[in-house]
């Protein structure tokens, strides 16, 4: 399933080490996972702001607050998961109302009050994205936020996938999957935005997780939509509704609202239908 929480914990750990004694008196932290700073957004189109809040292990988190106006006002993020009282996954759906740069920052709230403001992320509303340095020389998987997955009882033949873009040229290696109850043979596919099949490969392994590469990496370019999907002849896929409710930006990936797509039928096909902003836990893997 998604690796975002593990990545955020690692990032937070580095932050604590680098902070030294300057923050020794208050170790409450908010780490923003998405959007990657420098992301572009459109007026009126929701953006998914997600991340992790942490405190010393003896201090319980009561809320995570975010500001989009330099601290003049604060909003409370939705709690997605309590790892324990001192670590919380959260999200907030932010809809820009006017063009210009928006700086989002967060703070942890505990019984003693609000903690310090964390490292911010900048969103360029109706402006050009600024691609951030990301080491994808080997591979980068789409990092998403945590949400509980459901094993869908559907047993019909279906193709499920994720629509996405990239912010830099490179190669699509394949995808990582979180699977449901069906563990038989599947076929992984990559499609162009118009439904042209760009690559496919069969997979037959009973594991809950799968990392599948195409025989040959596929060149991908910014400015184009792609869909990575897999065909399951007996349904049994993992899904989470109310997931892609806004644009999710985690460099080098840009995932639009309603990105989880499906297509019913024997043999599968180009998936274009959506259901309740679901994800089917098909995570593209990029090199570049």
UniProtKB/TrEMBL annotation:
Residues 1-24 form the signal peptide. InterPro entries: DUF4082, Ig_E-set. Gene3D superfamilies: 2.60.40.650. It comes from the Bacteria. Keywords: Signal. Residues 150-282 form the DUF4082 domain. The keyword Signal applies. This is Uncharacterized protein DUF4082.
């Amino acid at each position: 399933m998604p690796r975002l929480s593990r990545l955020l914990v690692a990032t937070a750990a580095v932050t604590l080490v680098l902070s030294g004694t300057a923050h020794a008196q208050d170790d409450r932290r908010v780490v923003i996972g998405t959007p990657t700073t420098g992301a572009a957004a459109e007026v009126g189109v929701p953006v998914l702001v997600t991340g992790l809040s942490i405190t010393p292990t003896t201090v319980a988190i009561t809320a995570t607050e975010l500001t989009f106006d330099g601290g003049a006002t604060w909003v409370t993020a939705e709690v997605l998961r309590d790892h324990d009282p001192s670590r919380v996954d959260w999200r907030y759906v932010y809809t820009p109302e006017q063009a210009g740069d928006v700086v989002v920052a967060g703070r942890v709230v505990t019984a003693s009050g609000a903690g310090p403001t964390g490292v911010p992320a900048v969103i360029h509303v109706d402006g050009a994205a600024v691609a951030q340095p990301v080491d994808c020389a080997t591979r980068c998987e789409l990092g998403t936020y945590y949400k509980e997955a459901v094993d869908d009882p559907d047993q019909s033949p279906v193709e499920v996938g994720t629509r996405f873009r990239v912010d830099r040229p490179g190669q699509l290696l394949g995808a990582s999957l979180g699977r449901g109850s069906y563990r038989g043979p599947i076929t992984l596919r990559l499609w162009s935005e118009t439904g042209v099949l760009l690559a496919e490969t069969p997979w037959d392994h009973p594991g809950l997780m799968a990392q599948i590469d195409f025989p040959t990496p596929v060149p991908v370019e910014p400015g184009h939509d792609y869909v990575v999907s897999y065909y399951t002849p007996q349904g049994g896929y993992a899904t989470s509704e109310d997931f892609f409710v806004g644009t999710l930006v985690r460099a080098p990936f840009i995932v639009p609202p309603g990105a989880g797509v499906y297509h019913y039928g024997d043999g599968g096909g180009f998936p274009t239908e959506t259901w309740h902003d679901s994800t089917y836990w098909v995570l593209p893997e990029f090199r570049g």
